[in-house]
Amino acid sequence: MSAHPVPVAAPGRAGGGGLRALLEHRARILAGGALVALAVGGALHLAGAGGAGDAVWIVAVLLLASELAAEVVRTIAVERHMGVDTIALIAMVGALALHQELAGLVVGLMFSGGAALEERRVGAGAPRADAADPARADERSRARTSASRWAPPGRRCPRRPRTR
Questions:
Q1: Longest Cα–Cα distance in the chain
Q2: Average pLDDT over residues 88-102
Q3: What is the C-alpha separation between 96 and 105, in angstroms, rounded?
Q4: How far apart are CA 68 and CA 126, in angstroms?
């Protein structure tokens, strides 16, 4: 028997949790999968197998769109409004309908990449990036009314003369 205790992974941390860890980090996994699909599909196109490349992109877009659709349904059911994710979902489905698989994948990559950044930010202990954050309302107001973000609050910067 060892005198040292065996370290046990905390729930949701690497080394433990299995399915739970996958669910907690699904945004990062989806963003990584989108990048891999983008690279594989692009390589197939360069190799002359455009149909196979398109198929890879279609599968990736369908996977990303299904995750996004679940998020949109949750937002509508819980928060009772349609967010910007709805626009991304419409863009992805529209891209597939118009046979623009790469465009749909790029939109999906933007969605999943943003979600992965938010997941990482929240995981690091930072608050969610929320446009309705009342603590930052005064800061946003000053930024809109100031001519320059380097000017002290309430002071406007002089305009530069136009050069031709």
A1: 82
A2: 97
A3: 9
A4: 24
- 105, with CB counted inside 10 A (0-12, 13-18, 19+), is buried
User: CA 11 → CA 20, 30, 47, distances in Å?
Assistant: 8, 21, 44
Phi-psi region of 9 (alpha: psi -120 to 50; beta: other; left: phi over 0): beta
Q: Within 10 A of 31 (CB to CB), how many other CB atoms are there?
A: 22
Task: Give the pair of three-digit tokens for residue 102.
Answer: 């790469």
CA distance 118 to 112: 10
What tokens appear for 101 in the block?
Answer: 């698989």
How many residues are given for the chain? 164
4 pLDDT tier (thresholds 50, 70, 90) = very low
Phi, psi at 123, each rounded to 5°: -65, -25
> Do residues 115 and 89 lie in contact, with contact meaning Cβ atoms separated by under 8 Å?
no
Give the confidence band of 22 by pLDDT, cuts at 50, 70, 90.
confident
For residue 132 the two structure tokens come to 């309705």
